[in-house]
Amino acid sequence: MSIDRETAAKVAKLARIRVTEDALPALAEEFNTILGFIEQLNEVDVEGIEPMTSVTPMRLKRREDVVTDGNQQAKILSNAPDAREGFFAVPKVVE
Amino acid sequence: MADLNTLTIAEARDALRKGDVTALELTEACLSQIEGAGALNAFVHHTPDIAREQARAADTRIKAGDAPAMCGIPLGIKDLFCTKGVPSQAASRILEGFKPEYESTVTQNLFDAGAIMLGKLNMDEFAMGSSNETSVYGNAVNPWRRGNDDAALTPGGSSGGSASAVAADLCLAATGTDTGGSIRQPAAFTGITGIKPTYGRCSRWGVVAFASSLDQAGPMTKSVRDAAIMLSAMCSHDPKDSTSADFPVPDFEAALTGDIKGKVIGIPKEYRMEGMPAEIEQLWADGTAMLKAAGAEIRDISLPHTKYALPAYYVIAPAEASSNLARYDGVRYGHRAKLAQGDGITEMYEKTRAEGFGHEVQRRVMVGTYVLSAGFYDAYYNRARRVRALIKRDFDQAFDAGVDAILTPATPSAAFGLGEMKDADPVQMYLNDVFTVTVNLAGLPGISVPAGIDTQGLPLGLQLIGRPWEEGDLLNTAYALETAAGFVAKPGKWW
């Protein structure tokens, strides 16, 4: 499996990271190095082995479905790059 | 008494309780050392006011007579921990200016026990790196040098600032975190002790997430006893972390008897890597002999899937990172890129993340995105999780056969020069974690203990891997190894 610059551009797009056109060939090459290393996993016989979901055999805890927190609007907005009138502000989303 | 900043936690605790020293004196000693250690670039946010206030409170508590062991102990805190009202950036530009409105559970536990925060410590960006060279703050520097050569060496990573600060006696101990070796490798590179507990021992709440199924916090200290004391204070069951273990936290220090007679120590043949430096091989053999002399039974064992741990890790960790780091979108906190006329929300995301994430983080997020993308999920991600199950099974089988702990080298080399790996491909850097990453994949406790000095005068570490939840037993074996190795060397002060 080899990654070309089109695939690299597509991955960057999916990851929402802007990559300039001229940086794509080097990025594709790095992907190929890493994926080449990962290819070793194909040597392993994984027949009948379930993918690990939890490293310790423990059931996730449940709790009552009740509100335990809230009324912290000012705290939540305190780190926002742009907050107005009690909301996070972002560029126009809908055309 | 020795310079106060050079004390161990245990020494300081005893001196505090006897009234020979105050927490404020300890704190001032550390603060003045930090001030003079700019060249190490270990502390990146200084909190002297908080430290003095906490020290005064600790002194009051100690006088009252029932202070816990960590009361009055000045610590450095890795920048990955969210600390209320104090910059917590994970060494990333994307979290520039972020001041959490809350405290991580681990730091809260330490503060509840009376510990003191001197400041925040340098690290690799989002804990992704093995040399502290991916930090937005610039490189942290190892206080150790090769003989008289003044070339700057890496303190390792990702907890490079923590390792540098403890080794240089800028603080009594520090917090670290470990996703693939980020406590144990820097501990080995700087001649200190670092333990990653069993997955679930320390709450991950308030610790900036890298790879959630692998991340664990742990102490980085000047001795095994200190690691035991500090680990007891860091651990707790926490309902805010759904993977936090609901087990009582033992007094780990009480487990340090030094008696390991009859314990079975496994030596895994797969850790004998091709091209391993002779010095590392010798150190490993010496450590084996020390444990044998202390009364342990040495047994050759096999962990056949060891070779596949790193490739499995470099699927699973980036996959989880790509998901965890999706939250950095320029909306709720941290950096937002300046937008051009007509830019919409997608441009905001893309420009913000391109400016805010460094190169290594971008690369891992994109690798993670790729291995999780439609058509590859099964071939990469699911296969890696199946291999992970096999890696864990290897350990389970060794423990079921009666092995109590496993001895390996901590790293494949001593500390290397900053910039030396610049032209290497990313996989070369990843090989630093070859001996440590298996432990994260299997969720086990692992500890790095300084055990020797190489011909260039640099410290080398050995790793012990224990059974899940048996950190006390593991620390006791490490204590026996520490006693036998008698490592006392310190870096000469040049900074």
Keywords:
heterodimer, A: 95 residues, mainly alpha, 2 strands, B: 495 residues, alpha/beta, Amidase signature (AS) enzymes, eleven-stranded mixed beta sheet, 15 helices, 11 strands, Aspartyl/glutamyl-tRNA(Asn/Gln) amidotransferase subunit C (chain A), GatC (chain A), ATP binding (chain A)
Description:
The complex is a heterodimer of chains A (95) and B (495). With 95 residues, chain A is mainly α. Chain A has a domain at 5-43. Chain A contains three helices and two strands; from the N terminus they run αααββ. Chain A has helices at residues 5-14, 24-38, 73-77, and strands spanning 83-84, 87-88. In chain A, a hairpin with a 2-residue loop joins strand 1 and strand 2 (87-88). The mean pLDDT of chain A is 93. In chain B, helix 7 (224-234) packs antiparallel against helix 15 and helix 9 (309-324) packs across helix 11. Chain B has 495 residues and is of the alpha/beta class. An eleven-stranded mixed β-sheet of chain B has the order 1-3-2-4-6-5-10-11-9-7-8, sandwiched between helices. In chain B, strand 2 (74-78), helix 4 (105-112) and strand 3 (116-121) form a beta-alpha-beta unit. In chain B, 37% of the residues lie in helices and 13% in strands. Chains A and B meet through helix 1 and helix 2 of A and helix 9, helix 10, helix 11, helix 12 and helix 13 of B.
